[in-house]
Design goal:
Layout lengths: L5 E3 H4 L3 E3 L5 E11 L7 E7 L4 E5 L3 E4 L4 E3 L15 E3 H5 L3 E4 L4 E4 L2 E7 L2 E8 L2 H8 L2 H10 L8 E3 L3 E3 L9 E3 L1 H6 L2 H9 L3 H9 L3 H8 L4 H9 L3 H10 L2 H9 L3 H10 L2 H10 L17 E3 L4 H11 L8 E5 L5 E6 H5 L7 H4 L7 E2 L4 H11 L3 E5 L5 E6 H8 L2 H8 L1
Parallel strand pairs: 2-7, 9-15, 16-17, 19-20
Antiparallel strand pairs: 1-11, 2-3, 3-4, 3-8, 4-5, 6-7, 9-10, 11-12, 12-13, 14-15, 17-18, 20-21
Helix pairs in contact: 6-8, 8-10, 9-11, 10-12, 11-13, 17-18
Length: 419
């Protein structure tokens, strides 16, 4: 019967292995598991002998602890375990790899792995991501605990149960771990963006494969344009086009402008026609022109609608709009003739027409105006958004205050505010 209860991988590595009569077999260099739901089963250990290494199956294990590992067979009876190729070597494949810490919304390192005996089987139970795991591997855990005791402190373990861990990538080439991928998708896009920004290119791609197009678009919106472009270029063109369609038109135009023209055109060609036309038009503006900042998702309604009809339209149009704080009123030629706030609309009599509710004096900016002019208008009139018109006074977009801030602040300072 197995007598070991729990042990860390770092305590097993280098431990002496003896056979059932006490003869030396070698030293442990790794432990193997098979990936399966819950707590994966240990299927063997890799042992370094005089001139070779051998993988010994779990059936031959009698006892494992931090002092010694013993076998239930004689040394001469050892038959190497035949590997299927699906095994994971804990030291080689998992130690020092990265794991997504959902609670802290950050990427942390696997410092150690905890094993335990469950129903006469060895199981991988938890990941140690704390300082204690690191010092345990360095062999100074006892010293750290002693020093901590001098100051009446406790060096606690920081463990993540393995049943909360999923593989991001199914193979073991550049393997990373993710705590409950479903939970990752439920995080705020800002937190997902912060996590993804710390990963390598292959692992960023793997994360984005777990997100639907809407969540991926929201996450990209929280990242710098050059990184957005890099991530989209690593995807299939169809997948990238789907995500671009979910992004605000101004954000999509910005990221396409960051790419090589051939690639940008390819993605535009794969987007739905209407979205591609809108994004393509925004790309024609110079970087310092107001049109380069504007979004084409806004609420513009004819002046003959009543307040009640307008609210019904808002229910239909709001999910696609950049903001609904302002409702812009247009005439038959789509010229901007007025504006009213959402609050004014809600408190208005149901049958009152927009023509009677709107403010006819509207602060606007031309699509070719300087970005600095937009900034000054928003600051002067304390606006959440400013409408953009073309030379014929037709409403063509809006610029929100957050887009102006992104354009006005230097990238380094904007990163500090964002993260």
């Amino acid at each position: 019967m197995l007598t070991f209860t729990e042990v860390f991988l770092s305590q097993l590595i280098g431990q002496l292995v003896i056979d059932k009569v006490g003869k030396k077999v070698g030293k442990v260099v790794d432990v193997l598991i098979v990936h399966e739901p819950g707590f994966p089963r240990v299927v063997g250990i890799k042992v370094k002998r005089s001139f070779e290494s051998v993988v010994i199956g779990e059936f031959a294990l009698a006892m494992m602890n931090k002092q010694i590992v013993s076998l239930s067979i004689l040394r001469n009876d050892i038959q190497p375990l035949e590997l299927s190729g699906n095994e994971i070597f804990l030291r080689r494949d998992l130690m020092d790899r990265q794991i997504v810490d959902i609670d802290g919304a950050k990427v942390v390192r696997v410092n150690d792995l905890k094993l335990a005996q469950v129903n006469n089987e060895y199981r991988l139970m938890a990941v140690d991501i704390g300082l204690r795991g690191l010092v345990r591997r360095l062999g100074v855990e006892r010293i750290l605990k002693k020093v901590a005791g001098w100051f009446s402190k406790d060096v606690s373990e920081k463990l993540i149960s393995w049943d909360y861990v999923d593989m991001i990538t199914p193979d073991l080439s550049a393997i990373k771990l993710s705590v409950a991928q479903g939970k990752l998708a439920s995080l705020h896009p800002h937190d997902v963006a912060q996590i993804v920004s710390e990963l390598s290119a292959p692992d960023r791609s793997a994360i984005f494969q777990t997100l639907n197009a809407e969540k991926a678009a929201e996450t990209l919106a929280e990242m710098e344009t050059d990184l957005q472009a890099s991530i989209l270029e690593e995807m299939s063109s169809d997948r990238a086009a789907d995500i671009l369609e979910m992004m605000a038109t101004d954000d999509a135009a910005d990221v396409l402008n960051e790419m090589e023209e051939d690639k940008a055109q390819e993605l535009l060609n794969r987007m739905k026609y209407e979205e591609a036309v809108e994004v393509g038009e925004l790309r024609e503006y110079e970087e310092d022109e107001a049109g380069s900042l504007m979004a084409t998702e806004y609420i513009a309604l004819p002046q003959h609608l009543t307040a009640d009809e307008t609210i019904n339209e808002l229910r239909r149009l709001a999910p696609e709009a950049e903001t609904i704080y302002y409702i812009y009123v247009i005439n038959e030629e789509e010229h901007l003739v007025g504006v009213l706030s959402l609050r004014e609309l809600i408190v208005a009599p149901p049958q009152a027409k927009l023509a009677d509710l709107m403010q006819p004096r509207v602060i606007t900016v031309g699509d070719e105006a300087a970005v600095e002019d937009v900034f000054n208008l928003i600051r002067k009139y304390d606006l959440l958004a400013v409408p953009v018109t073309d030379v014929s006074e037709k409403l063509v977009g809006i610029i929100t205050v957050d887009d102006v801030i992104d354009a006005a602040l230097p990238r380094r300072k904007r990163n500090k505010l964002r993260y």
